[in-house]
Design brief:
The chain has about 130 residues and is mainly beta. The chain folds into 2 domains: about 40 residues, Rubrerythrin, domain 2; about 80 residues, Immunoglobulin-like. Helices cover about 5% and strands about 40% of the residues. It binds fe (ii) ion.
Length: about 130
Amino acid sequence: MTKVLEFYKCDDCGTVVMVTHSGEGPVMSPGGKPMRLLEEKMQEEGLTEKHVPVIEKTANGIKVKVGSVPHPMIKEHYIQWISVKDGRNFFIHALRPGEPPEAEFPVSDPAVKSIIYCNVHNLWTNKK
Ligand SMILES: [Fe+2]
């Protein structure tokens, strides 16, 4: 089945790729190995409150926070990006260590799907 948005990771080198349209063949790492399809998590014991995106409405759109307890933002463990899927639009905001784990987007509906990436715990979402 063709999906329009998938993320794959190479467990050897840590490379993560976003696939906007999947074909038949496997997604290969730079080293030539099949990459692992990342599943979007919503529940995992002890990790949920720091990873599941929380969305609030703002004057200009929405703010996405990761999570209900702010996620660490140190070099060894941080939220690398926050994304929002709003109909046919897909927004990604990149973050750096030391910055707050949050981002604003010009989206009017706070019920949108958000996907975030933690460099240790991979993909998380607020809805499947
Ligand atoms: Fe994490």
